[in-house]
Amino acid sequence: MQEFLLLMQDPAAWIALITLVVMEVVLGIDNLIFISILTNKLPPEHRDRARKIGIGLALIMRLGLLFAIAWIVKLDSDLFTIAGMGFSGKDLILIAGGIFLVWKATKEIHHSVDVQDHKEDLVGAGKNVVKMTFGAAIGQILILDLVFSIDSIITAVGMTPHVPIMFIAVITAVTVMLLAATPLANFIEKNPTIVMLALAFLLMIGGTLIVEGFGVHVPKGYIYAAMAFSAGVEALNMFTRRKRERERTANGSVTPTQH
To answer: What pTM value is reported for the model?
Structure first.
Protein backbone atom coordinates (compact mmCIF):
# COMPACT_ATOMS: atom_id res chain seq x y z
CA MET A 1 0.00 0.00 0.00
CA GLN A 2 2.84 2.36 0.90
CA GLU A 3 4.51 1.59 -2.42
CA PHE A 4 1.28 2.48 -4.23
CA LEU A 5 0.97 5.79 -2.36
CA LEU A 6 4.54 6.68 -3.26
CA LEU A 7 3.84 5.79 -6.88
CA MET A 8 0.81 8.11 -6.95
CA GLN A 9 3.01 10.99 -5.81
CA ASP A 10 5.18 10.62 -8.89
CA PRO A 11 4.06 12.97 -11.74
CA ALA A 12 5.53 10.55 -14.30
CA ALA A 13 3.23 7.84 -12.97
CA TRP A 14 0.19 10.05 -13.49
CA ILE A 15 1.27 10.84 -17.04
CA ALA A 16 1.74 7.12 -17.71
CA LEU A 17 -1.67 6.39 -16.18
CA ILE A 18 -3.53 8.98 -18.28
CA THR A 19 -1.74 7.89 -21.45
CA LEU A 20 -2.44 4.24 -20.77
CA VAL A 21 -6.12 4.88 -19.97
CA VAL A 22 -6.54 6.67 -23.30
CA MET A 23 -4.76 3.85 -25.12
CA GLU A 24 -6.84 1.18 -23.40
CA VAL A 25 -10.10 3.00 -24.21
CA VAL A 26 -9.08 3.31 -27.86
CA LEU A 27 -8.09 -0.35 -28.03
CA GLY A 28 -11.40 -1.24 -26.38
CA ILE A 29 -13.38 0.35 -29.22
CA ASP A 30 -12.67 -2.65 -31.45
CA ASN A 31 -13.90 -5.03 -28.77
CA LEU A 32 -16.97 -2.89 -28.11
CA ILE A 33 -18.00 -2.67 -31.78
CA PHE A 34 -17.89 -6.46 -32.07
CA ILE A 35 -19.91 -6.95 -28.87
CA SER A 36 -22.50 -4.37 -30.00
CA ILE A 37 -23.02 -5.95 -33.42
CA LEU A 38 -23.13 -9.47 -32.02
CA THR A 39 -25.57 -8.76 -29.19
CA ASN A 40 -27.91 -6.90 -31.55
CA LYS A 41 -28.53 -10.30 -33.15
CA LEU A 42 -30.09 -11.57 -29.92
CA PRO A 43 -33.72 -11.12 -28.88
CA PRO A 44 -34.14 -7.67 -27.25
CA GLU A 45 -34.67 -9.08 -23.76
CA HIS A 46 -31.27 -10.80 -23.84
CA ARG A 47 -29.13 -8.05 -25.34
CA ASP A 48 -28.30 -5.99 -22.28
CA ARG A 49 -27.41 -9.07 -20.23
CA ALA A 50 -25.20 -10.40 -23.02
CA ARG A 51 -23.38 -7.06 -23.32
CA LYS A 52 -22.74 -6.94 -19.58
CA ILE A 53 -21.53 -10.54 -19.53
CA GLY A 54 -19.31 -9.95 -22.56
CA ILE A 55 -17.70 -6.84 -21.09
CA GLY A 56 -17.46 -8.48 -17.68
CA LEU A 57 -15.58 -11.37 -19.27
CA ALA A 58 -13.29 -8.85 -20.96
CA LEU A 59 -12.49 -7.30 -17.56
CA ILE A 60 -11.90 -10.67 -15.90
CA MET A 61 -9.67 -11.76 -18.77
CA ARG A 62 -7.61 -8.56 -18.71
CA LEU A 63 -7.14 -8.66 -14.93
CA GLY A 64 -6.31 -12.35 -15.09
CA LEU A 65 -3.68 -11.68 -17.73
CA LEU A 66 -2.21 -8.92 -15.58
CA PHE A 67 -1.68 -11.48 -12.82
CA ALA A 68 0.14 -13.60 -15.40
CA ILE A 69 2.42 -10.86 -16.73
CA ALA A 70 5.43 -13.19 -16.66
CA TRP A 71 3.56 -15.53 -19.03
CA ILE A 72 2.40 -12.61 -21.20
CA VAL A 73 5.97 -11.41 -21.64
CA LYS A 74 6.99 -14.92 -22.75
CA LEU A 75 4.35 -14.80 -25.49
CA ASP A 76 6.73 -12.60 -27.48
CA SER A 77 9.31 -15.41 -27.59
CA ASP A 78 9.40 -17.44 -30.82
CA LEU A 79 7.95 -20.92 -30.57
CA PHE A 80 9.00 -22.08 -34.03
CA THR A 81 10.34 -20.78 -37.33
CA ILE A 82 8.98 -21.20 -40.87
CA ALA A 83 11.05 -20.06 -43.88
CA GLY A 84 13.17 -17.94 -41.60
CA MET A 85 10.16 -16.24 -39.98
CA GLY A 86 9.66 -16.78 -36.26
CA PHE A 87 6.20 -17.21 -34.77
CA SER A 88 5.49 -16.53 -31.11
CA GLY A 89 2.45 -17.38 -29.02
CA LYS A 90 1.26 -13.81 -29.44
CA ASP A 91 1.60 -14.08 -33.23
CA LEU A 92 -0.47 -17.26 -33.35
CA ILE A 93 -3.21 -15.73 -31.21
CA LEU A 94 -3.30 -12.58 -33.36
CA ILE A 95 -3.46 -14.62 -36.59
CA ALA A 96 -6.22 -16.90 -35.27
CA GLY A 97 -8.20 -13.97 -33.87
CA GLY A 98 -7.75 -11.98 -37.09
CA ILE A 99 -8.98 -14.88 -39.23
CA PHE A 100 -11.97 -15.33 -36.94
CA LEU A 101 -12.80 -11.64 -37.09
CA VAL A 102 -12.43 -11.45 -40.88
CA TRP A 103 -14.62 -14.53 -41.28
CA LYS A 104 -17.35 -13.20 -39.00
CA ALA A 105 -17.35 -9.71 -40.50
CA THR A 106 -17.40 -11.10 -44.06
CA LYS A 107 -20.23 -13.48 -43.18
CA GLU A 108 -22.31 -10.69 -41.65
CA ILE A 109 -21.65 -8.34 -44.57
CA HIS A 110 -22.87 -11.11 -46.88
CA HIS A 111 -26.08 -11.48 -44.88
CA SER A 112 -26.58 -7.71 -44.83
CA VAL A 113 -26.20 -7.47 -48.62
CA ASP A 114 -28.12 -10.64 -49.52
CA VAL A 115 -31.39 -10.08 -47.69
CA GLN A 116 -32.82 -13.30 -49.15
CA ASP A 117 -30.22 -15.44 -47.43
CA HIS A 118 -31.46 -16.31 -43.95
CA LYS A 119 -30.04 -19.81 -43.69
CA GLU A 120 -27.42 -18.70 -41.21
CA ASP A 121 -26.86 -15.76 -38.95
CA LEU A 122 -23.92 -14.41 -37.03
CA VAL A 123 -25.09 -16.26 -33.95
CA GLY A 124 -27.54 -18.73 -35.49
CA ALA A 125 -30.78 -16.82 -35.11
CA GLY A 126 -34.04 -18.63 -34.67
CA LYS A 127 -37.09 -18.50 -32.42
CA ASN A 128 -36.58 -22.01 -31.10
CA VAL A 129 -32.86 -21.69 -30.34
CA VAL A 130 -32.73 -18.63 -28.09
CA LYS A 131 -30.61 -20.41 -25.47
CA MET A 132 -28.17 -21.70 -28.09
CA THR A 133 -28.08 -18.28 -29.67
CA PHE A 134 -27.24 -16.64 -26.35
CA GLY A 135 -24.57 -19.22 -25.63
CA ALA A 136 -23.11 -18.90 -29.12
CA ALA A 137 -22.96 -15.11 -28.76
CA ILE A 138 -21.17 -15.33 -25.41
CA GLY A 139 -18.79 -17.94 -26.82
CA GLN A 140 -17.84 -15.75 -29.78
CA ILE A 141 -17.47 -12.68 -27.56
CA LEU A 142 -15.20 -14.73 -25.31
CA ILE A 143 -12.92 -15.65 -28.25
CA LEU A 144 -12.52 -12.02 -29.33
CA ASP A 145 -12.20 -10.86 -25.71
CA LEU A 146 -9.15 -13.12 -25.44
CA VAL A 147 -7.54 -11.68 -28.58
CA PHE A 148 -8.24 -8.05 -27.69
CA SER A 149 -7.28 -8.60 -24.05
CA ILE A 150 -3.86 -9.99 -24.92
CA ASP A 151 -3.27 -7.07 -27.30
CA SER A 152 -4.40 -4.67 -24.57
CA ILE A 153 -2.20 -6.13 -21.84
CA ILE A 154 0.88 -6.38 -24.07
CA THR A 155 0.36 -2.68 -24.87
CA ALA A 156 0.11 -1.92 -21.16
CA VAL A 157 3.28 -3.88 -20.38
CA GLY A 158 5.11 -1.98 -23.09
CA MET A 159 4.05 1.41 -21.73
CA THR A 160 4.71 1.10 -18.00
CA PRO A 161 6.44 -1.33 -15.63
CA HIS A 162 4.03 -0.51 -12.78
CA VAL A 163 1.33 -3.16 -12.32
CA PRO A 164 -0.99 -0.91 -10.19
CA ILE A 165 -1.11 1.62 -13.04
CA MET A 166 -2.02 -1.20 -15.44
CA PHE A 167 -4.83 -2.35 -13.14
CA ILE A 168 -6.30 1.17 -12.81
CA ALA A 169 -6.07 1.78 -16.57
CA VAL A 170 -7.70 -1.54 -17.48
CA ILE A 171 -10.54 -1.13 -14.96
CA THR A 172 -11.17 2.45 -16.14
CA ALA A 173 -11.20 1.43 -19.81
CA VAL A 174 -13.59 -1.47 -19.22
CA THR A 175 -15.87 0.80 -17.16
CA VAL A 176 -16.02 3.19 -20.13
CA MET A 177 -16.86 0.21 -22.36
CA LEU A 178 -19.65 -0.80 -20.00
CA LEU A 179 -21.15 2.70 -19.99
CA ALA A 180 -20.86 3.08 -23.78
CA ALA A 181 -22.05 -0.43 -24.74
CA THR A 182 -25.83 0.11 -24.72
CA PRO A 183 -25.83 3.59 -26.36
CA LEU A 184 -23.45 2.34 -29.07
CA ALA A 185 -25.50 -0.81 -29.69
CA ASN A 186 -28.73 1.22 -29.92
CA PHE A 187 -27.10 3.71 -32.29
CA ILE A 188 -25.83 0.92 -34.53
CA GLU A 189 -29.23 -0.77 -34.55
CA LYS A 190 -31.07 2.43 -35.51
CA ASN A 191 -28.65 3.30 -38.31
CA PRO A 192 -28.24 0.39 -40.78
CA THR A 193 -25.44 2.13 -42.69
CA ILE A 194 -23.46 2.35 -39.46
CA VAL A 195 -23.68 -1.44 -39.21
CA MET A 196 -21.94 -1.81 -42.56
CA LEU A 197 -19.32 0.75 -41.57
CA ALA A 198 -18.71 -1.02 -38.27
CA LEU A 199 -18.37 -4.36 -40.07
CA ALA A 200 -15.87 -2.76 -42.45
CA PHE A 201 -13.92 -1.58 -39.38
CA LEU A 202 -13.91 -5.11 -38.00
CA LEU A 203 -12.77 -6.45 -41.36
CA MET A 204 -9.89 -3.96 -41.37
CA ILE A 205 -9.00 -4.74 -37.77
CA GLY A 206 -9.05 -8.47 -38.50
CA GLY A 207 -6.74 -7.98 -41.47
CA THR A 208 -4.43 -5.88 -39.31
CA LEU A 209 -4.26 -8.60 -36.64
CA ILE A 210 -3.32 -11.16 -39.29
CA VAL A 211 -0.49 -9.13 -40.84
CA GLU A 212 0.82 -8.21 -37.40
CA GLY A 213 0.84 -11.91 -36.56
CA PHE A 214 3.12 -12.37 -39.57
CA GLY A 215 5.49 -9.71 -38.26
CA VAL A 216 4.31 -6.69 -40.26
CA HIS A 217 3.79 -3.82 -37.83
CA VAL A 218 0.87 -1.55 -38.70
CA PRO A 219 0.88 1.75 -36.73
CA LYS A 220 -2.37 1.98 -34.79
CA GLY A 221 -2.57 5.69 -35.60
CA TYR A 222 -3.18 4.90 -39.27
CA ILE A 223 -5.97 2.48 -38.40
CA TYR A 224 -7.81 4.86 -36.09
CA ALA A 225 -7.26 7.83 -38.41
CA ALA A 226 -8.92 5.85 -41.21
CA MET A 227 -11.78 4.87 -38.89
CA ALA A 228 -12.25 8.48 -37.76
CA PHE A 229 -12.24 9.74 -41.37
CA SER A 230 -14.77 7.10 -42.45
CA ALA A 231 -16.97 7.86 -39.45
CA GLY A 232 -16.81 11.57 -40.29
CA VAL A 233 -17.89 10.92 -43.90
CA GLU A 234 -20.74 8.72 -42.69
CA ALA A 235 -21.82 11.41 -40.22
CA LEU A 236 -22.06 13.88 -43.11
CA ASN A 237 -24.07 11.32 -45.12
CA MET A 238 -26.45 10.83 -42.19
CA PHE A 239 -26.86 14.58 -41.79
CA THR A 240 -27.62 14.94 -45.52
CA ARG A 241 -30.14 12.09 -45.49
CA ARG A 242 -31.98 13.49 -42.48
CA LYS A 243 -32.05 16.96 -44.02
CA ARG A 244 -33.60 15.55 -47.21
CA GLU A 245 -36.14 13.57 -45.19
CA ARG A 246 -37.15 16.73 -43.31
CA GLU A 247 -37.50 18.60 -46.60
CA ARG A 248 -39.63 15.83 -48.11
CA THR A 249 -41.82 15.78 -44.99
CA ALA A 250 -42.21 19.56 -45.09
CA ASN A 251 -43.06 19.52 -48.81
CA GLY A 252 -45.52 16.69 -48.31
CA SER A 253 -47.34 18.62 -45.58
CA VAL A 254 -47.53 21.76 -47.68
CA THR A 255 -48.61 20.17 -50.94
CA PRO A 256 -52.19 19.20 -49.94
CA THR A 257 -53.02 22.78 -48.94
CA GLN A 258 -52.00 24.06 -52.38
CA HIS A 259 -54.61 22.05 -54.29
So the answer is: 0.62
